[in-house]
Amino acid sequence: MNEEQIQQRYELQDRICYSVCVGNEYQTQKAVRELTDMGTISRVSDNLTGWKYDLIWLMALMIQSLREVGVPELSLEEVRAEFTTKIFEASDADGCRMLLEEIALRLCRMNSLKEIRSYSMLVQTVLRLIDQDLSQPLTLAYFAKMLNVNSSYLSNLFSREVGMPLTEYVTAQRISYAADLLMTTAQPIKTIAKKAGISDVQYFSRLFKRRTGQTPSQYRLRPIRQPDDPDAQQEAEVAEREAR
Q: For the purposes of burial, counting CB atoms within 10 Å of the CB of 65, is it exposed (0-12), middle (13-18) or buried (19 or more)?
Protein backbone atom coordinates (compact mmCIF):
# COMPACT_ATOMS: atom_id res chain seq x y z
CA MET A 1 0.00 0.00 0.00
CA ASN A 2 1.54 3.29 -1.12
CA GLU A 3 1.50 6.63 0.67
CA GLU A 4 -1.52 7.91 -1.27
CA GLN A 5 -3.56 4.83 -0.40
CA ILE A 6 -2.60 5.11 3.26
CA GLN A 7 -3.72 8.75 3.30
CA GLN A 8 -6.97 7.75 1.61
CA ARG A 9 -7.50 5.11 4.29
CA TYR A 10 -6.97 7.64 7.09
CA GLU A 11 -9.47 9.98 5.41
CA LEU A 12 -12.04 7.19 5.25
CA GLN A 13 -11.47 6.38 8.91
CA ASP A 14 -12.19 10.00 9.81
CA ARG A 15 -15.27 9.96 7.57
CA ILE A 16 -16.57 6.87 9.34
CA CYS A 17 -16.05 8.40 12.78
CA TYR A 18 -17.77 11.62 11.72
CA SER A 19 -20.74 9.81 10.17
CA VAL A 20 -21.11 7.64 13.27
CA CYS A 21 -21.07 10.74 15.49
CA VAL A 22 -23.84 12.50 13.58
CA GLY A 23 -25.91 9.33 13.25
CA ASN A 24 -25.78 9.18 9.45
CA GLU A 25 -26.23 5.49 8.64
CA TYR A 26 -26.10 5.94 4.88
CA GLN A 27 -22.75 7.76 4.89
CA THR A 28 -21.38 5.40 7.56
CA GLN A 29 -22.20 2.33 5.50
CA LYS A 30 -20.82 3.92 2.33
CA ALA A 31 -17.49 4.87 3.94
CA VAL A 32 -17.14 1.47 5.62
CA ARG A 33 -17.59 -0.34 2.32
CA GLU A 34 -15.03 1.89 0.62
CA LEU A 35 -12.59 1.15 3.42
CA THR A 36 -13.08 -2.60 3.44
CA ASP A 37 -12.61 -2.68 -0.34
CA MET A 38 -9.06 -1.47 0.29
CA GLY A 39 -8.25 -4.54 2.39
CA THR A 40 -6.13 -4.68 5.53
CA ILE A 41 -2.95 -2.67 6.13
CA SER A 42 -1.75 -4.74 9.07
CA ARG A 43 1.80 -6.01 8.63
CA VAL A 44 1.19 -9.37 10.28
CA SER A 45 1.72 -12.36 7.98
CA ASP A 46 -1.70 -13.92 8.62
CA ASN A 47 -4.42 -12.05 6.67
CA LEU A 48 -7.23 -12.94 9.09
CA THR A 49 -5.25 -11.74 12.08
CA GLY A 50 -4.55 -8.53 10.21
CA TRP A 51 -8.26 -7.97 9.66
CA LYS A 52 -8.97 -8.58 13.33
CA TYR A 53 -6.37 -6.03 14.40
CA ASP A 54 -7.86 -3.52 11.97
CA LEU A 55 -11.36 -4.10 13.35
CA ILE A 56 -10.20 -3.64 16.93
CA TRP A 57 -8.43 -0.42 16.00
CA LEU A 58 -11.36 0.99 14.04
CA MET A 59 -13.85 0.06 16.75
CA ALA A 60 -11.67 1.89 19.27
CA LEU A 61 -11.63 5.01 17.08
CA MET A 62 -15.41 5.01 16.70
CA ILE A 63 -15.99 4.44 20.41
CA GLN A 64 -13.60 7.24 21.31
CA SER A 65 -15.42 9.57 18.91
CA LEU A 66 -18.78 8.78 20.52
CA ARG A 67 -17.28 9.15 23.99
CA GLU A 68 -16.18 12.66 23.05
CA VAL A 69 -19.74 13.68 22.12
CA GLY A 70 -21.22 12.35 25.34
CA VAL A 71 -22.54 8.87 24.60
CA PRO A 72 -22.73 7.02 27.97
CA GLU A 73 -19.60 5.04 28.82
CA LEU A 74 -21.55 2.00 30.03
CA SER A 75 -23.34 1.68 26.69
CA LEU A 76 -20.07 1.95 24.79
CA GLU A 77 -18.42 -0.63 27.02
CA GLU A 78 -21.23 -3.10 26.40
CA VAL A 79 -20.80 -2.76 22.64
CA ARG A 80 -17.02 -3.01 22.88
CA ALA A 81 -17.20 -6.20 24.93
CA GLU A 82 -19.81 -7.80 22.66
CA PHE A 83 -17.93 -7.11 19.44
CA THR A 84 -14.49 -7.92 20.82
CA THR A 85 -15.79 -11.45 21.30
CA LYS A 86 -17.28 -11.50 17.80
CA ILE A 87 -13.99 -10.28 16.31
CA PHE A 88 -12.12 -13.04 18.10
CA GLU A 89 -14.57 -15.62 16.72
CA ALA A 90 -14.47 -14.37 13.10
CA SER A 91 -13.27 -17.13 10.76
CA ASP A 92 -12.48 -15.31 7.52
CA ALA A 93 -11.88 -11.91 5.91
CA ASP A 94 -15.42 -11.67 4.48
CA GLY A 95 -16.80 -12.19 7.96
CA CYS A 96 -14.58 -9.37 9.21
CA ARG A 97 -15.85 -7.04 6.49
CA MET A 98 -19.45 -7.73 7.44
CA LEU A 99 -18.60 -7.38 11.12
CA LEU A 100 -17.07 -3.92 10.63
CA GLU A 101 -20.25 -2.72 8.96
CA GLU A 102 -22.33 -4.20 11.79
CA ILE A 103 -20.15 -2.49 14.42
CA ALA A 104 -20.27 0.88 12.67
CA LEU A 105 -24.04 0.86 12.19
CA ARG A 106 -24.63 -0.30 15.76
CA LEU A 107 -22.53 2.58 17.10
CA CYS A 108 -24.12 4.99 14.64
CA ARG A 109 -27.56 4.25 16.09
CA MET A 110 -26.36 4.88 19.64
CA ASN A 111 -25.78 8.59 19.28
CA SER A 112 -28.55 10.34 21.19
CA LEU A 113 -27.59 13.65 19.54
CA LYS A 114 -29.18 12.46 16.29
CA GLU A 115 -32.12 10.47 17.65
CA ILE A 116 -35.07 10.90 15.29
CA ARG A 117 -37.47 8.18 16.36
CA SER A 118 -39.49 10.69 18.41
CA TYR A 119 -40.39 12.59 15.22
CA SER A 120 -43.37 11.87 12.99
CA MET A 121 -42.81 9.48 10.08
CA LEU A 122 -42.97 12.36 7.61
CA VAL A 123 -40.24 14.33 9.38
CA GLN A 124 -38.15 11.18 9.83
CA THR A 125 -38.33 10.61 6.08
CA VAL A 126 -37.23 14.16 5.34
CA LEU A 127 -34.30 13.89 7.76
CA ARG A 128 -33.13 10.65 6.20
CA LEU A 129 -33.38 12.06 2.69
CA ILE A 130 -31.26 15.02 3.76
CA ASP A 131 -28.65 12.71 5.25
CA GLN A 132 -28.49 10.52 2.16
CA ASP A 133 -27.55 13.14 -0.42
CA LEU A 134 -26.84 16.77 0.39
CA SER A 135 -26.01 17.51 -3.24
CA GLN A 136 -29.72 17.46 -4.13
CA PRO A 137 -31.85 20.65 -4.26
CA LEU A 138 -33.28 20.11 -0.79
CA THR A 139 -35.91 22.83 -0.82
CA LEU A 140 -39.34 22.78 0.76
CA ALA A 141 -40.88 22.47 -2.70
CA TYR A 142 -38.58 19.54 -3.51
CA PHE A 143 -39.71 17.56 -0.47
CA ALA A 144 -43.37 18.51 -0.81
CA LYS A 145 -43.43 17.23 -4.40
CA MET A 146 -41.42 14.08 -3.63
CA LEU A 147 -43.57 13.15 -0.63
CA ASN A 148 -46.85 14.40 -2.11
CA VAL A 149 -47.71 16.68 0.81
CA ASN A 150 -48.75 20.29 1.18
CA SER A 151 -45.66 22.51 1.47
CA SER A 152 -47.16 24.73 4.19
CA TYR A 153 -48.11 21.69 6.25
CA LEU A 154 -44.64 20.19 5.88
CA SER A 155 -42.97 23.49 6.75
CA ASN A 156 -45.01 23.96 9.91
CA LEU A 157 -44.62 20.32 10.99
CA PHE A 158 -40.85 20.31 10.49
CA SER A 159 -40.35 23.60 12.34
CA ARG A 160 -42.52 22.45 15.25
CA GLU A 161 -40.81 19.07 15.67
CA VAL A 162 -37.18 19.91 14.85
CA GLY A 163 -37.16 23.39 16.32
CA MET A 164 -35.96 25.24 13.22
CA PRO A 165 -37.15 25.85 9.64
CA LEU A 166 -36.33 23.14 7.11
CA THR A 167 -34.18 25.50 5.03
CA GLU A 168 -32.10 26.43 8.09
CA TYR A 169 -31.65 22.78 9.02
CA VAL A 170 -30.52 21.90 5.48
CA THR A 171 -28.03 24.77 5.46
CA ALA A 172 -26.62 23.67 8.81
CA GLN A 173 -26.16 20.12 7.50
CA ARG A 174 -24.49 21.36 4.32
CA ILE A 175 -22.00 23.43 6.27
CA SER A 176 -21.34 20.62 8.75
CA TYR A 177 -20.70 18.16 5.92
CA ALA A 178 -18.45 20.63 4.11
CA ALA A 179 -16.50 21.29 7.31
CA ASP A 180 -15.90 17.56 7.70
CA LEU A 181 -14.62 17.25 4.12
CA LEU A 182 -12.34 20.25 4.62
CA MET A 183 -10.82 18.66 7.71
CA THR A 184 -10.52 15.09 6.46
CA THR A 185 -9.78 15.34 2.72
CA ALA A 186 -7.61 17.32 0.34
CA GLN A 187 -10.44 17.87 -2.14
CA PRO A 188 -10.65 21.34 -3.76
CA ILE A 189 -13.05 23.77 -2.09
CA LYS A 190 -15.09 23.96 -5.31
CA THR A 191 -15.59 20.19 -5.24
CA ILE A 192 -16.56 20.21 -1.57
CA ALA A 193 -19.06 23.01 -2.14
CA LYS A 194 -20.70 21.01 -4.92
CA LYS A 195 -20.87 17.86 -2.80
CA ALA A 196 -22.51 19.89 -0.04
CA GLY A 197 -25.15 21.08 -2.50
CA ILE A 198 -23.88 24.62 -3.13
CA SER A 199 -22.72 25.05 -6.73
CA ASP A 200 -21.65 28.71 -6.40
CA VAL A 201 -18.28 28.51 -4.66
CA GLN A 202 -18.21 32.24 -3.83
CA TYR A 203 -21.61 32.02 -2.17
CA PHE A 204 -20.46 28.88 -0.38
CA SER A 205 -17.40 30.69 0.99
CA ARG A 206 -19.48 33.61 2.25
CA LEU A 207 -22.05 31.31 3.83
CA PHE A 208 -19.36 29.13 5.39
CA LYS A 209 -17.64 32.15 6.97
CA ARG A 210 -20.93 33.52 8.25
CA ARG A 211 -21.68 30.18 9.92
CA THR A 212 -18.22 29.28 11.26
CA GLY A 213 -16.41 32.61 11.51
CA GLN A 214 -13.71 31.36 9.12
CA THR A 215 -13.29 31.00 5.39
CA PRO A 216 -13.08 27.42 4.07
CA SER A 217 -9.32 27.83 3.57
CA GLN A 218 -8.81 29.08 7.13
CA TYR A 219 -10.98 26.28 8.54
CA ARG A 220 -8.94 23.68 6.69
CA LEU A 221 -5.79 24.78 8.54
CA ARG A 222 -7.26 23.84 11.91
CA PRO A 223 -5.62 20.81 13.58
CA ILE A 224 -7.49 17.55 13.19
CA ARG A 225 -7.65 14.50 15.45
CA GLN A 226 -4.90 12.16 14.35
CA PRO A 227 -5.47 8.41 14.04
CA ASP A 228 -2.79 7.83 16.66
CA ASP A 229 -4.89 9.54 19.34
CA PRO A 230 -3.47 8.18 22.64
CA ASP A 231 -6.88 7.44 24.16
CA ALA A 232 -7.98 5.49 21.10
CA GLN A 233 -4.61 3.73 20.99
CA GLN A 234 -5.00 2.63 24.61
CA GLU A 235 -8.53 1.37 23.87
CA ALA A 236 -7.21 -0.64 20.93
CA GLU A 237 -4.39 -2.17 22.97
CA VAL A 238 -6.82 -3.31 25.68
CA ALA A 239 -9.16 -4.78 23.10
CA GLU A 240 -6.29 -6.58 21.35
CA ARG A 241 -5.20 -8.26 24.60
CA GLU A 242 -8.77 -9.43 25.30
CA ALA A 243 -9.19 -10.76 21.76
CA ARG A 244 -6.16 -13.09 22.03
A: buried
